[in-house]
């Protein structure tokens, strides 16, 4: 059963601003910074509020701005999270950011921005976070620790907004920064970033990459004694094991380790979700008494930490267990109430997933009409989700259409203006013939100027028409992508990655649903793939249902990112009964494949090899080896 998004924990110490002499802007106080290091606990909270109070009392007019800002941020975060007063904490940060001394110190301003973003993350204020992301990405930060914090703050923000490809991009950038920050906190940063990289791989359903990252990080954490994020690491690994191998002893062992918080830290959301996952595991194996006990423990923690989102899910699960044990009336009543509360905050797609279990509960209780009603409701929710996606796509097409219409109107107005000027010039010529000879000379000069202007306008229109004809000849009329002819206009660059893919069983879609639907599938794939590429990358409709992607300046770290992006863009269901898969070949422009012709020929050979091996995969030839990128839709999550 699907769970809510796990609250992501930050590693760096946050800062807020205070009043300080501008002459100290940009500096830091080593002694106070070290004291602040010792205060940091999990969930961005000071382990000892009294110790934080002592640091705050030690601040004075001589304290460097950045250090003072960091200490004040602890105060704001404690107020937002421990005291549950996020609005007051944001007001404190606003007031501090308006202080003239703070405004002159970019490090202090960056600390304030990071603190505000962390509060939005903790309170799951998605609307505020969407608006704030632009400011977070625009600010320039020179200090490595602050820049590292900014990168993983942006990554965790994208995770909360369910844009996991962008989240992984910023997490990998943060991972590159860790090695450049040499201090006693380096291993904690590595553990923190690797935790989130593993979790993001799991959200993208790249479970092999997730498992490798998590196994390595857990072993390294135990060896070095860096234990603060071990419960979360075990929690995520247990989830990956349960999804890939099913409920087993290894997954249960990881979940049990996650139920115990690190020494000195309070019981929190990680422990709550661990009990919920243990209950789900026992539910799947038919151990209902144990499942109910684990759900009850998770619900108790949810009440303690005031977490209503997962509380609804665990109450729903608890009711489901009661139904399976024969308590139909009470169990169904609990499930119905929990789903009613959950549907107020969850998107349609997530609601539809939960309705599978409610329908099964009604069937177990022999209430078949209610089960049928729930299945109809589930279908409506899925149609709502698909309709929202289609409306978003149509809105983008409408914007393009409006832009084209505006361009055409400008051309028409220019033509009308030219005709009007030509008529005026003709009238002037007729009048000047009856004027004195001296006026005729003046008219001749004026006509020459008008004629020159008119010729320039004609030349400009002719040049524009030629450009439009050239553009049309290089565009595919259905998808508006580049065609084969356009590829000759781009230069070959050593190291570029070429991916040639073909939609699997596309003829069957045309035969079963008609060519209009087939055209819409091609347009859907084109729009989705184009959306995940950068501006410098190329997307070409090679012919029929075959596409060519050219990825510029790709590196080793970028291979996993482009693999994830292509998977999410290609493998989808544009219509309820149609799932798109693809087979393809991928090669780099280098060595024997250093030209378009040789690279495309080799990619085409790999494409046919992928077809022969069972379709739904892209074969990548890299460093003399052939790797397989699975392009098959993964099974739904169970936790």
Structure, described:
It comes from Alishewanella aestuarii B11. Residues 1-22 form the signal peptide. By secondary structure, the protein is an alpha+beta fold. 66% of the residues lie in helices and 7% in strands. Among the domains are: 28-140, no CATH class; 486-630, 2-Layer Sandwich (Alpha-Beta Plaits), CATH 3.30.70.270. It has helices at 30-39, 49-58, 65-81, 86-97, 100-103, 106-122, 126-138, 144-160, 164-178, 186-203, 207-224, 230-245, 249-258, 269-284, 288-305, 308-324, 328-342, 348-364, 368-432, 437-473, 484-487, 506-513, 515-532, 556-570, 596-612; strands spanning 497-503, 538-543, 546-551, 572-575, 578-580, 582-588, 617-622, 625-630. It has a 6-stranded mixed β-sheet. Strand 7 (617-622) and strand 8 (625-630) form a beta hairpin. The model is unreliable at 1-25 and 635-639 (pLDDT under 50).
DSSP E strands, number? 8
Query: Roughly how many Å apart are the termini?
Result: 5 Å
Instruction: Give the helix tally.
Output: 25
Q: Which geometry do the CA atoms define?
A: globular
Annotated CATH architecture of the domain at 486-630: 2-Layer Sandwich
CATH class categorisation of the domain at 486-630 = Alpha Beta
CATH superfamily of the domain at 486-630: Reverse transcriptase/Diguanylate cyclase domain
